[in-house]
Amino acid sequence: MIIDKRSQGFIWLDKTVEDMIGGRSYLIIQTSRGTGYLELNNNNYWTIGRGKDNVLIVPDNCISRNHAILQRTENGVFYLIDLGSRNGTFINGRRVGIPIILRDGDTITFGKTHLEFHNPNSSTKQEELLPEIMTFSGDRDTQTSTILERRLMSVMVIDIRNFTGLSRKMEGEKLSEMIGYWFRKSGQIVRDSGSWIDKYIGDAVMAIWFHSSQNPSRKEIFSIFRALHQISVLTSSLNQEYDLPFQLTVGAGINTGYAMVGNTGSEDNPDFTAIGNTVNTAFRLESSTKDLGVNLAIGETTYKNLNNLASGQQFFKEYSIRLRGYEMPITLYGTNFADFNDLIATLTNLEMD
User: Fold this and answer.
1) DSSP letter, residue 130
2) Where does 50-148 show beta strands of DSSP type E?
3) Would strands 89-91 and 56-57 be described as parallel, antiparallel, or unpaired?
4) What is the rounded (10 degree) CA torsion for 53, 10, 81, 212?
5) Contact between 50 and 33 (Cβ < 8 Å)
6) CA distance 124 to 102
7) Which of 56, 194, 288, 343 could form a disulfide with 9 if both were Cys (CB 3.0 to 4.6 A apart)?
């Protein structure tokens, strides 16, 4: 029976969870207040931290304001991502710094707070589901557990334009507050689209979307484009939020192709990321927008997938340019946000039909 309303994301119970919960996925927290229960079936991700903007608010001074993300894939596999928290995230007593897949019965520790993860509805071992998502290499129960696989993905790099000029005209504290807000809201937008931000780099972010087939679906490409559109709108709104000396905008590069996904760091400093030419090209595409005078540049493979997006190719112009680090010129496709917004409106109307 429920004896209190939902608080900090939990429902508080007066009996054991097993007595009332069937084969659902859920989190359990034990406190002096009692047993807290959070069902994990009505969403795809849950933000966790001390801050009030989280789905799961944990009033523990030892955890960060935005501490971690719990994310569920389409296959029903849950993985936990630490957001660079100061005091770390621990699974069964071991600190983890890369996304790690959770098993039924795992104990999760944030600061002084302990939670139990349960996924009793899974009739198959989670590792058997991983080939469609990612594959473990090494001992899962060690700090050095890694995830290695060659995956088809789209990589998006977004950079705030003229951030250096802005930093010269704003106080450091206000600038830090603004960029923190932008990072936090951009991360939420990307998570809503089914991905997460893999890198925060100065005034830029890098996000990755995995594709399950050789030809990304219209829905997948639309999700990426819509996320970029929403981040562009967010950036424009910063002028009103923080009374900036000039209007901010972003430049972006999107590239689709194969790359290796895994831990490229050390035992003491693990770093889960994607590496390879697909990723490098995405960064070069973003950089090329400054020379071309456009807001968005996409690679050929991403462009070809626009065939599924209601003549989406008409919103882009073809360029041949030699990117830094490349011996030969490559073909890319660029557009400004005015035309890109028209594309988003067209795709939104299609989704509503």
Assistant:
1) G
2) 56-57, 68-72, 78-82, 89-91, 94-96, 100-101, 107-110, 113-118, 136-137, 146-147
3) unpaired
4) -100
5) no
6) 14
7) 56
pTM, two decimal places: 0.62
Cβ atoms within 10 Å, residue 18: 9
| Among candidate residues 127, 131, 129, 103, the one with its CA nearest the CA of residue 117 | 103
DSSP assignment letter at 104: T
- How high is the mean pLDDT of the chain? 78
Q: What is the pLDDT of residues 24-68, one digit of tens each?
A: 788 988 766 677 888 887 777 788 888 887 788 888 888 888 788
pLDDT digits (tens, 9 = 90+) for 269-328: 445 677 788 999 999 999 999 999 999 999 999 998 886 666 677 899 999 998 877 778
Tokens of 44: 């795809």
Residue whose tokens read 């999700």:
223
3-state secondary structure of 107: strand
Strand 250-263 relative to strand 296-298, pairing: parallel
